Amino acid sequence: MNLHKRRLLTLAGSATLVASAALVGCGKKEEAPAPASTPSAPASAAAAKPEPLKIAFAYVGPVGDGGWTFAHDNARKALEKEFGDKIVTTFVEKVPESADAERVLRDMVGQGNKLIFGTTFGYMEPMLKVAADSAGVRFEHATGYKTADNMRTYDSRTYEGAYMAGVIAGSMTKSNTLGVVGSIPIPEVIRNINSFTLGAQSVNPKIKTKVVWVNEWFNPPKETEAATTLINGGADILMQNTDSSAVLKTAEEKGKRAFGWDSDMTAYGPKAHLGSAVINWAPYYIKATKDALDGTWSTGKAWWGVKEGAIDMVSIASDVPAEVQDKVAKIKAGLKDGSFAIWTGPIVDNTGKEVLKKGEVADDAFLGGIKFYVKGVEGTVPGNK
């Protein structure tokens, strides 16, 4: 069963579509030199300066969500700083995963954008349709798996950040019960829950993890309710795979601990905050833009993590013991140089079935299709019998 990766709380409606046209910038042309036959034209008239590359971003959430979309927009700003007047960037936020997405993307093409980033799984089919009609435009689709001659995919290894969060959580918990607020039960999210648990169990074999699903990516009230349920169920440290800061805020209010997700969320719950598993989209966005400017852009798939500077654990709380922080640093170094792999057997699921043999290292095909909970995660994956 195919599930959209990211769903918005409310549809943006027609206002989003109007905004798409209003937000697209345009470059300023310099006057062309006079024809050579004109007596007043200098013999060595300078060539006109190339127009900037126009780049557009379609965001599924609000830029102020403090998490997923906020991280993408920070990377957009990094692009502007990197390339200056060589580019012009614009964005449309709150673009729903529906027919509206296709209309917004077509509008971006119509406004002259030559590089377009779609930042959620649900844009995959609309982007493919628009790409087929827009041969001169390059499309970049976040978290998808379908490509075309002028459309490629990119993603981040968020499970690496989840594992490092787990190491901290397993070291700091007093109840040995962790909680995760899950968004939508697709392999990406299940993989993060499992990696969080594996990280915690690597330092504390007694760990068990409870999960509450909200079936949305951005719904602060539901996220708050789920976090409260987990705390009432005995979890003293929380992680989420949702887009707002509601889980951290709830932990702060109830005297528990939690992690930031996608962006540094320290400010939303400074007493509760143990660290933030962040995504840095800037390295990939800079590469993609350079490819477009240089004329070297080609289709393909990218999945970047700690090694490429796309994933990190930041702002670790001062009360986390030095030896735990050192362990996280060593894991980070191992992920960077390839000497450490999170998914290395033996690993069993929570029914006792072996999913990775001793010494076996999961490849990307395995990681991309995870639909089970590892040992220690309570319950069953929604949809699994």
From TrEMBL:
Pfam families, A to Z: Bmp
Keyword set, alphabetical order: Signal
Domain of life, source organism: Bacteria
Spans through the membrane: none
GO cellular component, one term: plasma membrane
PROSITE patterns xref list: PROKAR_LIPOPROTEIN
UniProt-recorded name of the protein: Membrane protein
InterPro entries: ABC-Purine-Binding, PnrA-like
Signal peptide: 1-21
Chain ranges of the ABC transporter substrate-binding protein PnrA-like domain: 54-326
